[in-house]
Amino acid sequence: xxxxxxxxxxxxxxxxxxxxxxxxGMLKAGLLKPNQIWASAPTTTNLETFKDMGCHxxxxxxxxxxxxxxxxxxxxxxxxxxxxxxxxxxNAIQSHHLIVSVAAGISIQFMEKLLPEKTRVIRSMPNTxxxxxxxxxxxxxxTYATEEDATVVSNLIGSVAMCEIVPENLIDTVTGLSGSGxxxxxxxxxxxxxxxxxxGLPRSLAVKFAAQTVLGGAKMVLETxxxxxxxxxxxxxxxxxxxxxxxxxEEAGLRTGLLxxxxxxxxxxxxxx
Length: 273
Ligand code: NAD
Hints:
Blueprint: E1 10-13, H1 17-28, E2 37-40, H2 44-52, E3 56-58, H3 61-67, E4 70-73, H4 80-89, E5 98-101, H5 108-114, E6 120-125, E7 135-141, H6 147-158, E8 161-165, H7 171-179, H8 181-198, H9 203-224, H10 228-235, H11 241-252, H12 254-272
């Protein structure tokens, strides 16, 4: 496969949250032009968003496959088998196609069994902040996917997400961490804002300040390269306000709660497979 993105047409089978986040992010990043993107879904609701972005839309998944070289499989996990079987019945998938699944829990082996022999497959796990180009994505190469295929996926998704190759047996863990993680972070932001509202700050300011605090903390970790524990110790002056806050978090079990959330979501991803 050519790694020249100008020659690539990207198809999205399933046009919901994840497909929109990836497509919109790739357009915003200037990586693809709207006419290089196709999307399919059974109803028009989600497709309208793709239409508004200037992309091609259709209700027929096989139209997306015949128009595109890179096919993002963005349906719910339980629909993957049905969608692939129908495409197979129509001989839609050919040797020039690269299939990129984003479905939680669905293994490469499962997809390869449903696809024509030697189909190139990449299993990925992006997340919805790809919409604002601050996503995270772990991906693994299937049996026949080449290094060029990995480069294409890493260039496409890498324009909207921190994109790293991981062994396939860790993709479920990536799902539990960063695939599901935005929901944990929204919960933290909401709860921090509630605390501030309780203590008198107007809601709109509380939400903005809480979100910016999460963003700032994340940037400190990523840009300084320092360990979160070191950064936390630095802001906990003896007898100061922050160590009192941290103590309240420890009493409430925040760390155990987050650890368990990643564990539970990872195990759930394993069940979906
Ligand atoms: P969604 O419900 O928002 O979108 C699913 C889309 O699939 C809809 O547009 C729906 O109309 C379409 N669809 C349903 N049946 C179809 C069919 N037979 N053919 C073609 N399209 C069909 O779901 P989502 O949140 O975008 O999740 C899609 C995939 O992305 C899932 O497999 C999920 O595991 C994965 N994922 C989601 C997130 C997330 O945060 N939402 C993160 C990482 C991975």
